[in-house]
């Protein structure tokens, strides 16, 4: 074998050996890093120590180990967290943990600088936002804490289960209410959900009134959802005057044109089902609508049509806020083929369960053109702060009816006297 060939074989062997050594070194490095990552991902003190045994500068393991030592050895924890920052300067949680240690050690300016850096690094991460908020609340900057909570509620709606009760507690305490004023002036997109929660769970109605009226004072118009849940809460608490004033205050210019002792008696306005407006409930076998027909004095009249079989009809009503005294209901009716025993009547009651009518019209059945009708009634001085005007079939019809036909109503008004 020639000398040149021997030299070539030797060089190839050396190259192959070097490649094998490099491959082995890389495999070992991959194994070390992989094991360190595996231990660090376990997120426990023992796992962090194991990860550091494989890779002494693993940033996540350094952070976990620093966290574990923070309570009993702040100096060692500080060194570990600083090393974690050095090896991974992008982890907001490490800055926050280090800031807590520095704040406890009296280094508040440096701690604030760290939290400000963390707020830039982790603006959408839930753990970082929660920890940042806790820091700002603990160190006299609650407005910054609320900002972090607001982002949490926007990006992680499930945090409402934890944060809504705390926000409600802030709203319920006159000393902390001013903290919520920025939210009232420029409401976040989660506000409707919080207000609905507050309207349902607030121990005192004054808390809900503050949140609702604060929106109005800030120049914002409460949404239909806010109006509905607010009025429902006032209704539940028997705050009748507050409910009536809030409802009137929420009407737009056109809606205010329908005001009177009876609202929108000509059925010209859209029916909202809120406050002291008409309420129309679904009724199997019956169609309730407002539309124009020959003889209407405006663009619309109320029409109830029956076809088939259904339960006793009592599905159109309007709450009334009348003082005690005598009144007269007037209107026009057009009968459109209902059997007389299935006819509809207007009845006025005090708004109490199972209250008997203060007065009721005849049952409108049969077939006829537009005719006027009237009803005199008296609101008692006691135990009748709110009343209800309801369109209904008489009790004698029983639980069910079967038949066809309809009835039209227009120009309903209530006036004093009678």
Task: Explain what the structure shows.
It is a single chain. The chain is an alpha+beta fold and 418 residues long. Among the domains are: 164-250, no CATH class; 279-416, Galactose-binding domain-like (Jelly Rolls, Sandwich), CATH 2.60.120. The chain is built from 15 helices and eleven strands. It has helices spanning 3-41, 45-54, 59-69, 74-87, 92-104, 108-121, 126-138, 142-155, 160-172, 181-185, 191-201, 205-217, 224-236, 240-249, 253-256; strands at residues 279-280, 286-291, 301-311, 316-320, 325-338, 344-350, 359-360, 366-367, 371-379, 387-393, 400-416. Strands 2, 3, 5, 8, 9 and 11 form a six-stranded antiparallel beta sheet that branches. α1 runs antiparallel to α2, α5 (92-104) packs antiparallel against α6 and α13 (224-236) runs antiparallel to α14 (240-249).
Compact summary:
With 418 residues, this protein is of the alpha+beta class. It has helices at residues 3-41, 45-54, 59-69, 74-87, 92-104, 108-121, 126-138, 142-155, 160-172, 181-185, 191-201, 205-217, 224-236, 240-249, 253-256; strands at 279-280, 286-291, 301-311, 316-320, 325-338, 344-350, 359-360, 366-367, 371-379, 387-393, 400-416.
Q: Residue share in helices?
A: 40-55%
Low-confidence stretches: 12-42, 50-54
Protein structure class: alpha+beta
Q: Specify the CATH architecture of one domain.
A: Sandwich
Number of helices: 15
Per CATH, what is the topology of one domain? Answer: Jelly Rolls
Query: pLDDT average, as an integer?
Result: 81
**Strand and helix order:** HHHHHHHHHHHHHHHEEEEEEEEEEE
Biggest sheet statistics = 6 strands, antiparallel
By DSSP, the count of extended strands is: 11
Beta content comes to 15-25%
Radius of gyration computed on alpha carbons = 37 Å
Q: What is the fourth-level CATH superfamily of one domain?
A: Galactose-binding domain-like
Question: What is the overall silhouette?
Answer: elongated
Classified by CATH, the class of one domain is Mainly Beta
How far apart are the termini? 134 Å
């Amino acid at each position: 074998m020639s000398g040149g060939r021997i030299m070539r074989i030797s060089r190839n062997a050396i190259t192959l050996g070097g490649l094998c050594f490099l491959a082995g070194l890389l495999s070992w490095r991959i194994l070390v890093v992989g094991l360190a990552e595996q231990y660090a991902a376990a997120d426990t003190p023992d796992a962090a120590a194991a990860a550091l045994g494989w890779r002494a500068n693993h940033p996540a393991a350094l952070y976990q180990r620093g966290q574990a030592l923070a309570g009993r050895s702040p100096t060692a924890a500080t060194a570990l967290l600083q090393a974690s920052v050095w090896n991974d300067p992008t982890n907001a949680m490490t800055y926050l943990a280090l800031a807590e240690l520095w704040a406890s050690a009296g280094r508040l300016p440096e701690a604030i600088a760290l939290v400000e850096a963390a707020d830039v690094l982790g603006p959408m991460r839930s753990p970082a936002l929660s920890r940042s908020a806790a820091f700002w609340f603990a160190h006299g900057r609650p407005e910054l804490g609320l900002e972090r909570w607001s982002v949490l509620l926007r990006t992680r709606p499930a945090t409402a289960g934890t944060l809504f009760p705390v926000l409600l507690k802030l709203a319920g305490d006159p000393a902390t209410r001013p903290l919520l004023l920025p939210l009232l002036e420029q409401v976040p997109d989660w506000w409707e959900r919080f207000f609905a929660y507050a309207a349902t769970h607030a121990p005192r109605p004054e808390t809900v009134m503050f949140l609702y009226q604060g929106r109005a004072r800030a120049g914002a118009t409460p949404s239909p959802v806010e109006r509905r849940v607010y009025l429902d809460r006032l209704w539940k608490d028997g705050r009748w005057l507050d409910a009536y004033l809030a409802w009137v205050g929420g009407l737009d210019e056109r809606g205010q044109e329908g005001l009177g002792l009876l609202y929108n008696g000509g059925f010209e306005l859209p029916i909202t089902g809120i406050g002291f407006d008409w309420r129309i409930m679904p009724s199997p076998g019956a169609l309730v609508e407002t539309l124009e027909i020959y003889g209407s004095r405006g663009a619309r009249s109320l029409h109830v049509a029956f076809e088939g079989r259904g339960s006793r009809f009592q599905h159109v009503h309007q709450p009334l806020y009348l003082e005690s005294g005598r009144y007269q209901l007037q209107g026009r009716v057009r009968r459109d083929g209902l059997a007389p025993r299935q006819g509809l009547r207007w009845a006025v009651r005090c708004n109490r369960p199972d209250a008997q009518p203060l007065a009721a019209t005849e049952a409108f059945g049969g077939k006829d053109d537009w005719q006027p009708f009237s009803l005199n009634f008296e609101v008692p001085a006691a135990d009748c702060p709110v009343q209800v005007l309801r369109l209904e079939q008489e009790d004698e019809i029983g639980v069910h009816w079967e038949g066809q036909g309809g009835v039209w109503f227009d120009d309903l008004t209530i006036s004093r006297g009678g």
